[in-house]
Amino acid sequence: MAGNSFGTLLKLSTFGESHGMAIGGVLDGVPPGILLDMEAIQRDLDRRKPGQSALVTQRKEPDQVQLFSGIFEGKTTGTPIGFAIFNTNQKSQDYTHIADSYRPSHADYVYDQKYGFRDFRGGGRSSARETAARVVAGALAKQIIPSIQIQAYVSQVGNVCLDKSYLELDLTQTETNDVRCPDPKKAAEMESLIKSIKKEGDTIGGVIDCVIQGVPVGLGEPVFDKLHARLGSAMLSINAVKGFEYGSGFHGVTMKGSAHNDAYQTDGSTVTNHSGGVQGGISNGMDIYFRVAFKPVATLIQAYTTINKSGEVIETHGKGRHDPCVVPRAVPIVEAMAALVMADFSLIRKAQLNRTHEF
Amino acid sequence: MAGNSFGTLLKLSTFGESHGMAIGGVLDGVPPGILLDMEAIQRDLDRRKPGQSALVTQRKEPDQVQLFSGIFEGKTTGTPIGFAIFNTNQKSQDYTHIADSYRPSHADYVYDQKYGFRDFRGGGRSSARETAARVVAGALAKQIIPSIQIQAYVSQVGNVCLDKSYLELDLTQTETNDVRCPDPKKAAEMESLIKSIKKEGDTIGGVIDCVIQGVPVGLGEPVFDKLHARLGSAMLSINAVKGFEYGSGFHGVTMKGSAHNDAYQTDGSTVTNHSGGVQGGISNGMDIYFRVAFKPVATLIQAYTTINKSGEVIETHGKGRHDPCVVPRAVPIVEAMAALVMADFSLIRKAQLNRTHEF
Amino acid sequence: MAGNSFGTLLKLSTFGESHGMAIGGVLDGVPPGILLDMEAIQRDLDRRKPGQSALVTQRKEPDQVQLFSGIFEGKTTGTPIGFAIFNTNQKSQDYTHIADSYRPSHADYVYDQKYGFRDFRGGGRSSARETAARVVAGALAKQIIPSIQIQAYVSQVGNVCLDKSYLELDLTQTETNDVRCPDPKKAAEMESLIKSIKKEGDTIGGVIDCVIQGVPVGLGEPVFDKLHARLGSAMLSINAVKGFEYGSGFHGVTMKGSAHNDAYQTDGSTVTNHSGGVQGGISNGMDIYFRVAFKPVATLIQAYTTINKSGEVIETHGKGRHDPCVVPRAVPIVEAMAALVMADFSLIRKAQLNRTHEF
Amino acid sequence: MAGNSFGTLLKLSTFGESHGMAIGGVLDGVPPGILLDMEAIQRDLDRRKPGQSALVTQRKEPDQVQLFSGIFEGKTTGTPIGFAIFNTNQKSQDYTHIADSYRPSHADYVYDQKYGFRDFRGGGRSSARETAARVVAGALAKQIIPSIQIQAYVSQVGNVCLDKSYLELDLTQTETNDVRCPDPKKAAEMESLIKSIKKEGDTIGGVIDCVIQGVPVGLGEPVFDKLHARLGSAMLSINAVKGFEYGSGFHGVTMKGSAHNDAYQTDGSTVTNHSGGVQGGISNGMDIYFRVAFKPVATLIQAYTTINKSGEVIETHGKGRHDPCVVPRAVPIVEAMAALVMADFSLIRKAQLNRTHEF
After folding, report:
1. What pLDDT was estimated at residue C109?
2. What is the ipTM of this complex?
3. Which residues of D touch C317 (CB under 8 A)?
4. pTM for the full model?
5. Which residue of A353, C2, C150, C223 lies most exposed, with the fewest beta carbons within 10 A?
6. Pairing between β-strand C288-294 and β-strand C81-86 as defined by DSSP bridges
7. Between chains, do B257 and A297 touch, taking CB under 8 Å as contact?
């Protein structure tokens, strides 16, 4: 396997399986001298952790992170930050029934084909537990760019979706309910949908919207590393994600250019923001916003049919503790990946800032 | 600027401005011994080039590529292939009117902010002319993986969209019409829509679908370099792209897991393919398919209002030769970027193929 | 800071300070299915660890590695291997005297200048303790390429140097003495030199030779990633290294081409091996051999003069437990870095092996 | 093949064979707004080009570079600079005699083994002609860091070597003679040695010293990307290089720490400079100096014995126009690679410069 690293000047490398000893990583490129808010890191981890509400899996994982290096007297030193979350509450026996069979729409089959065998306990490396390392790194990245605000929220669960843009919502309400939807009425509808789906032993998909504010002009690199291409890549790398759109997105294709173009105001800001804060791959100082589609969780508690390693059809059903809908817990993951992208481009931007060649 | 390279073992680095001397690049990592089909490369370039139909810009660019290296007696040698397309028909005077003003929803403003000044002729590096280099590299990449078929087509222009999946379409019809839509009736509707939009001096968006067939199991790397994350990043890096979804995409979020999961057949294939050929970031042997949203072209021929460098409001209109809709010419670009991703992962896969550690 | 990653398909990212909580890393790209010899890893760590003989520092660090991930039922899974060595015997009080002063020829001054402050305990990230993570990764890398043998040994301490090439030595004798010199007589001379230097509170430099055997033809990439360039970079990245030469090295410059050229035998092997097993940056199947120069350790126990942060001259002397000569403990580090390079190129080679383009 | 790219924020990708259509590359990451001195680029190319004196090969290659992109109104735009030198004077017939045989100590054999066949004309990609692209990029890199001076010179040819350090030499004399040695007397000896070697149809090796002055404190990254490790890698990637040492180098191993350590002066500078301007992998503001060993050129005009593809012994001799000693022409190549390293680290340094996390 390769592909366990992310970023250019701010580079995250992660490791860990769901039921291994630990999940963790190395974050290289954090600038020196940042007085770390350790509680903010744990707070983001707690937003992601299982067992936090009736809507999510009832696994109890304390998810306490240990930072091994790169910090001295409370401040970052500029050296890499190694970290790990030790696994404490794994129930591997819940998974022995899948050791020889392939759960539909899971990574079980392709891992066996690619690697010859797999660590089947809890999905091994393909488990969404891997994202805990991303949340730690993202929480650190947020502290590199304190003037940039990144806020994600659930905008859709199944067919229940917000009919307002982020500009009409009060995003301070996001964390007031278990779904993480800033509209309390819609949140209640989503919550009741998830509960009824859970009762069926079934699952449901959803959408997370993310808004990034306070972005200076000039982040992002034209051509292959466009700001939105890196954001898209970051989001699509999160488990269960099926789609990404920014600004006007898929809806924008139906518009005429005369309606879609964002007219400039005299200060360089724009009247509308169909561009979603990015033009030619570079931030233009307006709000960046994008949407991320998550499929329904593949693991069902209800009975289903599948095949085993010998290609025989078997009947089985999910055991263990699984989420009926992934989006409430995925909100901090979306923010974390966004923070890693924005902090990396901020560092790259600094390398370019002196336009003259005087060093 | 950075970000002008793409890929890991198959690495493309490009250069070139719209009205500079040449557009080109270096493709490193092409395996040795491939007998190149030079006409296939030119054919893809011709599909992208302006002036090929009444639907697209009437600029005449011969777009003839020269391969400088990496080929001996018709075969690739394993050394990097340098190439260039010399610019021959640039009318830079068409652009002097924008030297001091910012076209709405273009990269003009952010380039000036990021770099301090810009090559305004034809949009410089931000011009879609840059994609000609991608098409050359993609046409080479296709020849690295001859058993994988990549076919893109236009599925939507404005509100005119296909109501059939690729399985119900005859993709051999794609190149029979100027829109590059495999459904002749819909193609005619799209064509007439584009023509009427053009008459208004306006532009319109569209969607390109892409299908990849003949993919072996095991391409793609879990975690950050998931196959669909790299495909998404590749597509989002193309000019004017606003969104990417694969398999069930944004529609899948409304489904229950019991309906969305792809049941296995005894040979490891699946009955449905909501996964879009990718599970856990790794190809599962089923068809890969995805959709790419393109916004309406920003350059309008009709009059519009904008600001100049001094922040003054000015009234102007587009000059020169511009596309009213980008998708017909973007079909080979989508294919090219897909080919670069698939060929790169194929090479990485070969490095992993011996599961035992005997070398 | 950046630069804490090494490798392309086999990628090591490390973290850790001398007196922090732990030293460790992530090794990504290990092929699946390797039955790991855990004792071999610990054995290499023990060869590097302090306190193993009278010649080296008397610090007692158990240096026991924990592998966190990437292993299932004793075999590698193909997922990244996270690991750490927890620090247990740090005496940070030995370093408070240098918190405000700069030890000559150490990294103290440049760290303060570059990062604004530093973790002064034990040298922080600049400590050679960082190399423990390299040894773990190198011991894993050796197991990826079992048919390639990598053997390093001490060939020079101060002015005492071997007058034989590796072909005239019995390399099985290397580990029989504390200096790690395969010639017992020279080893004794070196040992006595180190002891007398130590008595003076002074230090001395040395040279490590390394031989790599069983290398197939074709490893290494022409141009910037020549096999010897990557080996050189790997060696020069080890603390205290001042020079690298391979094959005929610096001596070769005095030779005529007619004497230096290695004549081919009919099987493609060569009569002489001034090339050191590498031609045009690519292994030619002959033994690879190179030499690495280490400067005398900078930390002196004897009194010396230096400056403090305020630029005032102070008189001081080294405290704590330091090596009088670094080369005996650096032998496994040289081997480890060589193993990382050879395993990485072996994986890259596999990606290229099918010369035809059939996948 | 891979490995044709070099650098992180300043990234060079090259292409080209000795007797192909062109040699060239793409230099990505050049900051915008640099008013380019085009003559300085050509001047460095002229220093490398063949036929410039009686000491070097009499091939006539005008080596005129064309810059394709990244420049507007004489200034860099921040976009990648594509460039090529078209080959005009290739005499491929000089090489047909080696199409089926392997020149000793050349890359012929390993290329055939690695790639299955090779472009034998002039050595193809393994020819030192490849370095012309490095010289172009290096000349551009020098203009990114005008306050840093990079001066290389020949310090040894065969057994004739300078007995003075760079501090005792007048480096303005380097270009006054054909050998590029700043000591006129030694230069004359070297010149006469090369001429007599040439008369024998033989070749001889040499050493190039390089001094880098005006370097700010703080360039280079600890651990794997130490400043001297990147310089060493850069030098070892040049054709015919066998060794690299910096500061006290191999000689330093014989010194005691008490003599080797560089005592600080109150301003942070050091009395001696055995460190060679680098401590812990980071520049300390003192002069950087290093030495690069070049083997004797492998191509002999005199008769020699070798094997052909069928493994049969054949007698042959060199044809064409070859250098009897590579070092006079390699001086600008050493400078170019040094400039690429220093400019890349300068850009990385800028990303780190604000020690506080305010952006």
Report:
1. 93
2. 0.96
3. none
4. 0.96
5. A353
6. unpaired
7. yes
